[in-house]
């Protein structure tokens, strides 16, 4: 489907299909990543997986999946459609032909603009996803806070102030309305600054290596890359992008998981300094393997 020489709808459709596939396959690992980044008392990735399974069964890995499935498909569609069409617009503006191959500078500009655009759509999506993934631990933190406020000398067992496995949010719509009521519209964009630090360089370090690898893996300059070459190029580019984006992603996840009731971080810099002082440099990259 094509509406003009410089704007194509099929890029958005391909992004939608890719986004849906990535959510179904990757959400369990994303849940583990989020718990490791923003949670507590996990020794390593395996310990986190076993803890989630024992306490929440296999369904714990898919917590909060319905909202990403509905929203990340739209998000991915917008990101990849925006990137591809931005390339064509740049080529049309610079060379007079939207089909003219982009230079590295053109790809860099298109990637950075895509990273900026992605934050407007992706920050609320990530926030709701993380709050739904983390709500079991948020309830536990609030229960311990209540227990700590009991006057000293009062003989009240901890279980008497516990709220047994009651989720904070009934679903994504309730989560959004709760955030809006408690924090206003800006609450939906908590962590957006860290997301800019993640996505602008992150998308640049994804799309540039992806284009380079696709060109290197083509049989000749005039042919299209084989689908297996595209998958390989995407995997290699994703690895490069994710390793470099992980530190900012840790900060983003912690800021977004930081609920209003028990606000721990005052902002990006405070989160970075606090995380470094308490856990050292290894916190940013020990989670990258997940």
Task: Give a brief rundown of this model.
With 290 residues, the chain is mostly helical.
Kindly describe this structure.
It is a single chain. By secondary structure, the chain is mainly α. The chain contains 9 helices and no strands. It has helices spanning 10-38, 45-56, 66-95, 104-148, 172-183, 192-217, 227-257, 268-279, 282-286. Mean pLDDT is 80; it is low at 139-150, 156-164 and 286-290.
Characteristic terms for this protein:
single chain, 290 residues, mainly alpha
Itemize the secondary structure elements and their pairings.
Blueprint: H1 10-38, H2 45-56, H3 66-95, H4 104-148, H5 172-183, H6 192-217, H7 227-257, H8 268-279, H9 282-286
Helix pairs in contact: 1-2, 1-3, 3-4, 4-6, 6-7
Largest sheet: none
The tally of beta strands, per DSSP, is: 0
The total of helices stands at 9
Distance between the ends: 37 Å
Strand coverage percent: under 5%
Structural class: mainly alpha
- Please write the string of helix (H) and strand (E) elements: HHHHHHHHH
Poorly predicted regions are 139-150, 156-164, 286-290
Q: Judging from the principal axes of the Cα atoms, what is the shape?
A: globular
Cα radius of gyration in angstroms: 22 Å
Output mean pLDDT: 80
Instruction: Give the helix proportion (percent range).
Output: 55-70%
